[in-house]
Write a structure and sequence with these properties.
Order of helices and strands of chain A: HHHHHHHHHHHHHHHHHEEHHHHHHHH
Organism (chain A): Nocardioides albus
Helix content of chain B: 55-70%
Largest sheet of chain A: 2 strands, antiparallel
GO cellular component, one term (chain A): plasma membrane
Structural class of chain B: mainly alpha
Oligomer: heterodimer
Pfam family, one (chain A): SSF
CATH topology of chain A: Sodium/glucose cotransporter
CATH architecture of chain A: Up-down Bundle
Strand order of the largest sheet of chain A: 1-2
Order of helices and strands of chain B: HHHH
Number of strands of chain B: 0
Family (chain A): Belongs to the sodium:solute symporter (SSF) (TC 2.A.21) family.
Number of helices of chain A: 25
Number of strands of chain A: 2
Keywords (chain A): Membrane, Transmembrane, Transmembrane helix
Largest sheet of chain B: none
């Protein structure tokens, strides 16, 4: 396709005011990087932000680190394609796990004073599990950073008409400069700022979209009309307008299996694996100023998280009926080649951009674009800053270059950032081969995260679990997920042979479930035939070996209920159940 | 809030002087958010008042104007919060010795 070499061909027609809004945003981003770099003296400052941030800051950063390109583009794309069942990624696939992280697991992470999730792995299980975890995490971060970068580049391409590779390099340089300058504190401050810019960008778009489509009723009747006109290619309107049973999302023919797949595969294995063991997220909480602030981080984050679907999935659904190109694309079942997308032909990933083009006046358009750019940089910055911590501490300091002064590792972290960015430019090219990013990402998560949660939870609550069980469980779980991926239809592209009648999200859920079960079974069997770690070495790492007072904040009892983690988590849980009932 | 004020007096040896010092003392994330949202609010407000409202796109409402007003209000809330409940930057936290 001959898209945009000349500025006149660009998808989005921005004017001077729009560019001004974007430029102001970048000035703030770089300013934060510069200011955060002052008064930073040790590696704890650089990597864990000096453990000094209040809970609302780390809580918003927790959400923002995940509110990257993948979430905004991926969720609006899935919303455009499948409608409301996409909310399961939030209400089933995120909030419960975030609450669990805050209530149950965070005390172990924060209390044991580890600097990273793999380091916890090392203290609990030793070298084998640590290496498996650290390396697979680092590789996954590079891949995901690549996806974020690719989407960032495609926006710049759509906006300015620069060739994609130029856009990629410029975008990568900006992310690079603010992380290397300010470390995690700059990343976290920027994430909090990004959260507000993203909301300021997407909320007006959603409201205007609803206004134009005739409110929720108007949207529902338009979706019904579109589904009735093309019953062969478009999911039935009832499936698009109700979150349960979500058969359109899983691809399962049975409603009951679909519910089981969502609750167990997505809700339990995938989401717990992702939210409770992913260092990108946990690192934000580790930067908090006390154990109760660390516990509150994911819990406070759960509140905005519940409402993110209304500014991502909803505009996606609106775009699929309001934007002509997208409506045609959907009517064709995602087969039609329609020019005018950010990366060539129109795909669901273009939903938000096209809706912005159609609805927003200059001014708001600039704000919306700043929000998208912000989100994409947030995602990539989060991946890269977690990557450099793991590479510097967990791989290089642990195994390759030991016992150097602190400054050495800070410098090393900066170099790790530079190389991660360079590699991300190449993985961006890889990411461009997948049309729906969520599928690709779920596949990756299934392989890396599902077995992790099994190993962590077993390791935290079963002191008999041995070091050998730690790494063999992880490896066999990951292999089980890869095997399901290969047997399914198209989950791994050309590698999948299609023996199992599963595809898309459903296959990911099954792969994750398989990884979880295999990991538990292998870990238990191996534990029973190998020698456990000596009792004394598990303090702070295993529930039964840790004194209760180490797991709570002494000041907590005197605080009002809304400042304590557990009651706050209860409120969040009730709210998310109400949301599930309404939709 | 965990920004409880038992953080005593600022450590005078760590306070930076000059322009950088002033910037650092304002470097509270609440001020940063407040400033950015307010600047955006003003620009959108001006666009709404004097620019083309492009009603053929928005379907009727002057979207810039409304968004500008809301952004200004939220920006003001953040700045007010930062002014009313200031935090001492880089104050060492009790019990945190590395």
């Amino acid at each position: 396709m001959h898209t945009g070499i000349l500025a006149a061909d660009t998808l989005i027609q921005a004017n001077a005011v729009d560019y001004l809004l974007i430029a102001i945003y970048f000035a703030f981003v770089l300013g934060i990087g510069f200011l955060a770099s002052r008064g930073m003296s040790s590696s704890v400052d650089f990597f864990l932000s000096g453990r000094s941030l209040p809970a609302w800051v780390t809580g918003l950063a927790f959400i923002s680190a995940n509110l990257g390109a993948v979430e905004i583009m991926g969720m609006s794309a899935t919303g455009a394609q499948l409608g409301l069942p996409t909310v399961h990624y939030f209400w089933i696939g995120a909030v419960p796990a975030m609450l669990f992280l805050g209530v149950v697991m965070m005390p172990f992470y924060y209390g044991s004073k580890v600097r990273s999730v793999p380091e916890f792995m090392k203290r609990r299980f030793g070298t084998g599990a640590h290496l498996v975890n650290a390396i697979s995490f680092a590789v996954a971060q590079l891949l995901i950073a690549g996806i974020n970068l690719y989407l960032l580049g495609s926006i710049v391409h759509a906006l300015l008409g620069w060739p994609l590779w130029v856009a990629l390099i410029v975008a990568a340089l900006i992310v690079l400069s603010y992380i290397t300058l300010g470390g995690l504190k700059a990343a976290i401050y920027n994430e909090v700022l990004q959260f507000f810019v993203i909301v300021a960008a997407l909320l007006p778009l959603t409201i205007l979209g609803l206004y134009n489509v005739g409110g929720w009723d108007g949207l529902a009747s338009k979706i019904e009309g579109a589904a009735a006109a093309n019953p062969d290619t478009v999911a039935p309107a009832a499936d698009q307008l109700n979150s349960w049973p979500g058969a359109a999302l899983t691809g399962f023919s049975s409603d009951i299996l679909s519910v089981v797949g969502i609750v167990f595969g997505l809700g339990f294995v995938l989401s717990f694996g992702y939210w409770t063991t992913n260092f990108v997220e946990v690192q934000r909480a580790m930067a908090a100023d006390s154990i109760s602030a660390a516990r509150k981080t994911p819990i406070i984050g759960a509140f905005p998280k519940m409402f993110v679907p209304f500014i991502t999935i909803l505009p996606g659904m609106i775009a699929a009926v309001l934007v002509t190109e997208l409506a045609d694309f959907k009517a064709s079942g995602g087969e039609a080649q329609i020019a005018g997308g950010a990366g060539g032909n129109v795909t669901y990933n273009d939903s938000l951009l096209l809706l912005m083009r159609d609805l927003l006046p200059n001014g708001l358009l600039g704000l919306a674009l700043a929000g998208l750019l912000a989100a994409f940089m947030a995602g990539m910055a989060a991946n890269v800053s977690a990557f450099n911590t793991v590479v510097s501490f967990d791989l290089i300091q642990e195994y390759i270059i030991k016992d150097r002064p602190d400054e050495f590792y800070v410098r090393l972290g900066r170099w790790a950032t530079v190389s991660a960015t360079a590699i991300a430019i190449f993985t961006a090219a890889l990411a461009s081969n997948f049309s729906n990013i969520m599928d690709y990402l779920q596949t990756l998560f299934g392989f890396f995260n599902a077995p992790l949660f099994a190993t962590f939870i077993l390791g935290m609550f079963w002191k008999r679990m041995t070091a050998t069980a730690g790494w063999t469980g992880l490896v066999s779980g990951t292999l089980a997920a890869v095997l399901v991926g290969i047997l399914s239809e198209g989950t791994l592209g050309g590698l999948s042979v299609g023996v199992l009648p599963l595809s898309g999200q459903g296959a990911s859920f099954v792969a994750a479930g398989a990884a979880f079960v295999v990991d538990i079974v292998v870990s238990v069997i191996v534990s029973l035939v190998t020698k456990p770690k000596p009792e004394g070495s598990l303090k702070g790492l295993v529930y039964s070996e840790t004194p209760k007072e180490d797991l709570v904040d002494a000041e907590n009892a005197g605080r009002p209920w809304y400042a304590r983690p557990v009651p706050l988590a209860g409120v969040a849980l009730v709210m998310v159940i109400i949301l599930n009932v309404i939709f | 809030m965990s920004t409880e004020s038992n953080q005593a007096e600022p450590d005078q040896t760590k306070v930076n002087k000059g322009l950088l010092g002033t910037l650092l003392s304002l470097f509270d994330i609440r001020n940063v958010i407040g400033a950015l949202l307010s600047i955006y609010g003003v620009i959108l407000l001006l666009m709404g008042l004097f620019g083309d409202p492009e009603v053929e796109k928005t379907g009727g409402p002057n979207a810039n104007l409304w968004a500008g007003i809301v952004l200004l209000a939220i920006g003001a809330i953040f700045i007010a919060w930062g002014v009313l409940r200031p935090v001492v930057p880089d104050a060492p936290h009790p019990g945190e010795k590395e």
